[in-house]
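ping. complex inputs:
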Amino acid sequence: MMLQIRNLHASVGGMEILRGLDLDVRAGEVHAIMGPNGSGKSTLAQVLVGRETYDVTGEVLYEGRNLLAMSPEQRAVEGVFLAFQYPVEIPGVGNLYFIRTALNMMRKQRGLDELDAMDFLALAKERMKFVEMDQSFMNRSVNTGFSGGETKRNEILQMAVLEPKLAILDETDSGLDIDALRIVANGVNALRSKERALLVITHYQRLLNYIVPDRVHVMANGRIVRSGDKHLALELEKNGYADFEQDTAGGARSAAGVTS
Amino acid sequence: MSRRENTLLQGLSRLESRRNGHDPVWLKAFRHTALQRVSERGFPTAKDEAWKYTQIGRILDVAFEPAEADASLRLSSAAIDQLAGDLGGARLVFINGYFSPQCSSLKKLPEGVKVKSLASALAEEGESLEALLSRPFGEQTHAFTALNAACAEDGAFVQIPANTVIEEPIHLVFLSDPGAAFPAGPVVSHPRSLVLAGPGSRVTIVETYAGILDEVYLTNAVTEVILEEGAAVEHYKIQNETETAFHIALLDVRQERDTQFATHSVALGSLLARHEVTVGLHGPGAKATLNGLYMPQNEQHLDNPTTIDHIAPECISRELYKGVVDGRGRGVFDGRVIVRPGAMKTDSSQTNKNLLLSESARANTRPQLEIFADDVKCAHGATVGQLNEEVVFYLRTRGISQIAARNLLTYAFVGEMLELIRVQPLRSHVEKLVALRLSAGGVGMVAA
Ligand SMILES: Nc1ncnc2c1ncn2[C@@H]1O[C@H](COP(=O)(O)OP(=O)(O)O)[C@@H](O)[C@H]1O
Ligand SMILES: [Mg+2]
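pong. complex structure:
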């Protein structure tokens, strides 16, 4: 099992956002997490990459090891990656330099040789093709003055270069037009492999036409309230999330009962 | 005058007797007036607006002795390269304020260019220097400038004739080596430099101040730059004294019509430093650019007062100062822009940004616009902030350690200032100093 989440709780300032979440993800699988705004999808993603804002209890095993005990940078070195819903701007830090620094710091931690500027450029150029980016992106400051679509593509480019084992995509599709959506999806599909797992968080079913998931989970009020195969996404598209929001508000389903 | 203040003046009588007979009459009179000014005014206190943030009690408490010229003091050129960088052009080296011909290298310069020590200029040019030396010594002069006037014996003298262009930078290196100096104990030096850029001339001047041993000493420097019509001067000042030293300096600039002056100050060293820049725009069409980077850490206090005086119409001034404050350090920016009546169509902008890296770091920023003319464009802005923790987290999720992420972001903040350094070997030298400073806090990783 690549990722095992058991009874995960996260709160901030006494307000509970994740309220006993369970999830299992195997290597090679693509899981989609869908749910209404405010259900805690981004919080789950942030907790998995080590955001310190939240008080977290429960258990998260990544390749059998305690993920919650690792620092954010350690998790990255171990192969966990998040494509942020809202990537930050970093004025004054060149994109190329940033991605090379990230890759080399990870390689060093993994006991691999660092890539020199030439080798890195060759790799970056190849991966830029996945997301149809041109080199002018690389000379600009990270995400500074990028359009919404450009920041999302830049997240996928980082993923393509850093080659994580567990990649979490947080609403990478939001705000993208159909062309950008196709580019992002192609970038993601190019990385699908037996060794990798993907956790695709999305509000809409649309993206799942391009990235076909093995499992679909519905999240509401900080829990996974229903799981199924790709057909569940279509059902949600038709009926919306209203049912689920009522379900958990009434406490009708137990977390354990729906994740099997 | 209080007993404390006398300590800094005590050495003066010794200096006078030592100098007895050397000085021409006009210089004796000039020094006497300056000394009187010190006694009348006294040293600045917290009540002086311009010294509000910088208290000098710590300096006055030390019993400084005036440094002496010592020809036996020598440094290899490799050692000087290490301390000040090798910029490829002429290099004048001063040790404890006195010119060291052995350590200096004077390249062949164009016809009529004078690059020499102030001591030899005083001997050779004589009375013609009187008006020049007394210039920055006006009504507003504080005790340190007056003390420099009273005591200065040496420094650099640079004179560029009309329409002469010097491509390679002229490097003025002021080294303090109190360990070897006479007398033993804390010494004070008063370097005084003059740069005269003739009409239509162009030159780059780099001043480096550095210390060799971690001892207490005081550098009290005055540098004056005069640009005649159409001249262009690019000036750099690297203050990298030891962290036990005191550094008080004035850079005074006079610009005539259609001149271009730019100065870049990098303040890294000293326990307490105050580097003041005053620029007078006397002729229309003149442009002044003032850039500054200050990086106090530990207990360092680095003060950067600037005054840009728009006297003539249609002048431009641009000012950008950035501070990075760590430890219990304190950075001060005090930027005055005066637009005199008649200075119409003045175009002035001023920006000061501060980055605080620790809980106990402090920054004071005080932009002051005094506008007495119509039809002017004046903008200013000041910020004091911390590293964006959202960004630090983002970098950490990309495998970049917390320390490296903080260094990377700090370097990005500083990078803008480094890119403004146009003398390539100087930029590399400063990049190294800054990288060293940023990596001192932990495992270093900075942008190359
Ligand atoms: N750091 C935080 N501080 C305060 N409230 C938060 C914080 N993070 C998330 N929340 C709140 O938790 C809820 C879930 O947010 P989020 O995880 O972003 O939901 P989703 O991504 O599913 O839209 C929202 O009500 C949001 O306002
Ligand atoms: Mg979200």
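The pocket of adenosine-5'-diphosphate (ligand 1) is lined by residues A 12, 17, 35, 37-43, 53 (CB under 6 Å).
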